[in-house]
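Think of the structure tokens as a kind of shorthand, similar to the way a musician reads notation: each symbol stands for something richer, in this case the local conformation of the backbone. In the example below we present two proteins back to back. Begin with the first one, reading the sequence and then the tokens, and try to describe in your own words what changes along the chain.
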Amino acid sequence: MNLVLIAMIAALLIPIYEACQDEDIWQKVLAFASIATKTSMMILVLSVVRDDWMIGVVGVLILSVGNASLMLLAHVLKRVNE
């Protein structure tokens, strides 16, 4: 199971590299949304491995609320640039 978590962390580094490389704000927002999704999935896998449902609840909250807040931020940035 450690190999799965290491692979997930390696997959998490790809959007972090993309966010640091791009200057376009929309590409950064998409990269951060990808980071939030991958992080919450890692938390859900960890909660299944540890058999702890409280950690799973936190992962679900990050998955649902985290992406919504990023989309609200993108909408605000779009309105500011108009």
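Once you have a description of the first chain, move to the second and do the same.
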Amino acid sequence: MKQAASDFLASKRIAVTGVSRNPEGHGSNAVYQRLRARGYQVFAINPNADEVEGDRCYHDLRSVPRGVDAVLIGTRPETAEATMRECASLGIRYVWMHRAVGAGSVSDAATEYGRQHGIRVIDGGCPLMFDPAADVGHKAMRFMLTRTGKVPRQV
């Protein structure tokens, strides 16, 4: 898991799906903000918004100029498979489905599809739980959530 997280976070152009126009309480917005603050080129993806967090928002992954290296899926699990299919068609090699509590964005069908198409899929947890994006609070969450299975031990 640590190596998969390291490989994902080695990507410098990361799309974050599910970034909301109303950032309060949205995990995707927290990830988007932190990655941007850490110097990543991040791209907000929301089919219903043209701007979020003061930045341009793209309606889908295909719309991002020059593409991305990795994608964080932060939407409902029901939409994860469609996003995974788009990632496969675009040749994106790293996808992380966000989950802390509850189902998060994890979809078994999306995980299976991605892995069958050569994508390194992280099916749970959050990039903010791992360096260089981590903070103490997220590291503590990783410790607890790994024990409950919300953060996978292996990818």
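Compare your description with these statements about the second chain. Residues 44 and 55 are 8 Å apart (CA to CA).
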